[in-house]
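Example 3.2
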Amino acid sequence: MKIDQNTISQQTISKEFRLSERERLILRSIVHNYILSAEPVGSRTLSRRYRIGLSPATVRNTMADLEDMGLLTHPHTSAGRIPTDLGYRIYVNDLMQVEDVSDEVRRTLEENLVSFSPETNEIFERVSELLSEVSRMLAVIIAPDLSSGELDRVEIIRVASGRVMVIVVVRSGLVRTILLEMNAEITDPEIADAVQLINQRLSGLRLSEIHHEISKRLSDSRSSRNAIVRLLLDFPEKIFGTLSNKEMHIGSTRPLLEQPEYRSSDKMKGIIELIEDRDIIVHLLKDRTQGVTVTIGQEHHGERLKDLSVITSTYRMGDELGTLGIIGPKRMNYSRLMALVDYTARIVSSRVANAKYNPSNS
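Structure, written as C-alpha cells:
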C-alpha cells in the first residue's frame, strides 16, 4: 500500500500503517544508521552492523516493501535507501525512544544558565547561542507577546548627553530596556518628574492599553513641559509598541553549516538565504502547540522548507508562553534533540521564574 506523502497527516499515520515487527525493525535501523552516517543504507550494512538475524536477501525484500509503502527511497546514485518524510514521521511517532539528556549536557546548560537578569534580550541571546552549540543545529527563540502583561513601573537612567535608557518592568517580573535619543540634554529633575508621572498614571495598565490611554492620562500642562513625556506622547510605540511584537533571536549558524547536507555551495547559499528571511522562520515557529512538537519536510508546506525539520517546545515567562526550538536537516537525531529542546525549555521557564530585577544593577 503506497500513500501520498502530501496528503497524510501526523495524526493518521499510525492508523494507516500496520507494519510487521520485521518492517519496524528494518525501518528503525535504516533511519538510525542514516542519521549517524549521512549515507544511504544498504542491506549488507544492516545485516552486519545491527545483528538483526536476517539474511541480506530478506532485508532487501523488506526494504523494497517499505519503499513501495513510501517510507524509503533511494538516491539515483546509490543502491542504498534513505527515509522519506513519512519514514521519518513513523520513526518519530512509533519507533524511536526519546533519550535522556546526558549528564554532560545538563551540566553545560545549567552552568551557563545558572542565573541571569529578567532582561529578555540577555536571556534570549544566551539561550539561543547555547542551544545552537549543544544541538549542532540552528536554535531560534521567539519571545512571548507581552502586550497583555501589566505595567509595574518604569525607570529612566541617563546614559549620555541627550540619551536615556528606559527600563520597563512588567508585573510578571520581566524587563525590557529601550534607548531613547533626545533632541536636547535632559536634567535629573526632568527624569525624576517623568518617572513619577508615568508610574502614577500608567502603572497597572496592560501594555496593549497604554498606546490608547497614554494621551488621555499624560496630556495635562505638567506632562507637556517634560521632554521625555512629550516624546512618549508623540511616539508611544517607541517604548510600548516594541513590547507587543514577538521578538526573535537566532543562535550561531556555524554548527548548522557544518552538517554534511550543506557542503555544497548551492545548499549552503539556500540555507543562509532562508535564515535571513526572518518572516519564514517566525512562521515556522509561531502558533506551535504546547509541549514538544516536531514537523518534518513537506509538513511545512513550502518548497524552501521541504528539506528541513523543526523541533520546538513552549516555555513560560510570567503568564505568557514563548517558543524555542531548533531547525536543521531532516537527518537529525530526533531522539536526542527532542529531549534537549524540552529540557532547555524547562530550564528557561525555571530560571525566568526565579530571576528578579534589581534596580541597583542597572
